[in-house]
Prior knowledge:
By secondary structure, the protein is mainly alpha-helical. The chain has three helices and two strands; from the N terminus they run αααββ.
Amino acid sequence: xxxxxxxxxxxxxPPRPKGSIExxxxxxxxxxxxxxxxxSSQLIDPVATPTDTIHKPPNW
Length: 60
């Protein structure tokens, strides 16, 4: 939509090696994120919301 309607350059940053085939076909570029940057951008554990507390899965 952004590319077609606005002529914007689009590039996905997939968190996994396998990404959407459809997005790859539409992308002008692709960036593979560095694992340490993804890890440093994670929310704290636990995250308190007004109605609940959310915990990260054990394998994170």
